[in-house]
Amino acid sequence: MKISDTVMGGQPVTFDDIKTHRDILKKFTYVLFEDDTDRRWNPRALEKACDNDDYDDDLHFKDDLMFVKWCGEARQAFLSRNAPGLPVETFRLYGDDPDGRGILMDTRTLIDHFNALASVAQANHMELQRQRRVLNDIRNAFNVESKITSSFIIEKLFKMERSIRRLEENLIGEAPASAPPPSKGVIRFSISSKGLPKNASLSEVTTAFFADDYMTGYLLDTKSPSWNELDAQEKKSLRSKFSCIKRAVRIVLQHADSFPLKSNNPVQYKDLIRGIATKAEEKIRENLGFDSKTITIYKVEKQLTLPRMKGLEKSLNLPDNTPDDMRKFFNSN
User: Fold this and answer.
1) Which residues does 235 contact at the CB level (< 8 Å), separation at least 6?
2) Buried b (16+ CB within 10 A) or exposed e, 153-173
3) In the prediction, which pLDDT does 275 show?
4) DSSP letter, residue 2
5) Is residue 21 part of a domain?
6) What pLDDT is attached to residue 189?
7) In angstroms, rounded to a whole number, what is the distance separating the alpha carbons of residues 79 and 99?
8) pLDDT of residue 52
């Protein structure tokens, strides 16, 4: 049996390993192995071995199974003391026989196995640390390479962009302004304004201006290819008409309580504009001194040319809820 670097011999069975009638076993063993060098066997031992009655009285060896129990306990003790050095076939647990329970084993014999496991664990730990350092080095190398590659690509793209800009400036020239895409449902001002009566009131003109989106329609006119086909007089007439309507709508808004914000419901939006414009028209009638029942855009334009009306438009303000883009539009000439 090997314990670390020490090889130990077999361990014999002692009387302390026997639990069944240990004293009787001692006497029995003494009788069997009593010997001397001259006559070998003591006459008393021979006499006791031949005389069954004296043998029973002296050793009380009356149980037929006692010897079998001694053999079993001796065998179990021998296996427990010498388990590491015995083949597994020696044990009764090896096979179908369930006997042999309670066999103990000296765990010191496992020291070599524990040492081997510890060595393997330490070697694995060292290898893990080495692999981790290798992976960290590879990752750092990839990061550095990635930064270098990214910088190189960015520099190339920047140079290409500058080259393209120089080509655009020197060869291509300035690109012509493209016409804006037509707004959905908006008709050009030159067409939609024809549906407006000549003697339309301020409320009607204001309603048509917002409901039919005259501002976008006029922009479509000026950006469309057909605009270049018009002669100078036609262009001037269209500009004057739009400018006159814009001025009249601005006067209406300057006398209105609020700006007609656009709604998703066209019918409600149109009613909202008409209501605001109608109230504003009544204020204009009182402030500007109109006696006629209908106030047209041309009457407003004529009234604003009077000396007493000079500076009136600049003194009035648009409603507070006017959007910034519309405020900028109406304040421009």
Assistant:
1) 227
2) eeeeeeeeeeeeeeeeeeeee
3) 92
4) E
5) no
6) 85
7) 13
8) 44
Beta strand residue intervals within the chain, DSSP E: 2-3, 6-7
Number of structural domains in the chain? 1
Look at the chain and count its residues: 333
Asked, for residue 293, whether it belongs to a domain, the answer is: yes
Number of H helices, E strands in the chain: 13, 2
Task: Note whether residue 296 is domain-resident.
Answer: yes
Contact 196, 204 (CB under 8 A): yes
Cα dist from 222 to 115, 174, 230, 332, whole Å: 95, 20, 10, 17
The amino acid that residue 299 corresponds to is: K
With vertex at residue 18, the alpha carbon angle to CA 12 and CA 20, rounded to the nearest 5 degrees, is 160
Q: Where are the alpha helices (DSSP H) in the chain?
A: 22-33, 43-50, 52-59, 66-82, 111-167, 189-192, 202-211, 214-223, 232-254, 266-288, 297-304, 312-315, 324-331
Q: What is the dihedral of CA 294, 297, 302, 303, to 10 degrees?
A: 60
Whether 251 contacts 205, CB under 8 Å: no
What pTM was computed for the model? 0.45
Q: Could you give the CA distance from residue 125 to residue 86 in angstroms, rounded to a whole number? A: 35
Q: Which two tokens stand for residue 125?
A: 């730990």
**Domain span including residue 234:** 189-331
CB-CB contact of 254 with 317 (8 Å): yes
- Residue 198 included in any domain: yes
CB neighbours (10 Å) of residue 204? 19
List per-block mean pLDDT (blocks of 10 residues) for the chain, which spans 333 residues: 58 84 80 57 54 46 72 81 65 49 59 78 89 88 82 81 75 53 70 83 88 88 85 89 88 89 88 90 82 78 75 82 90 78
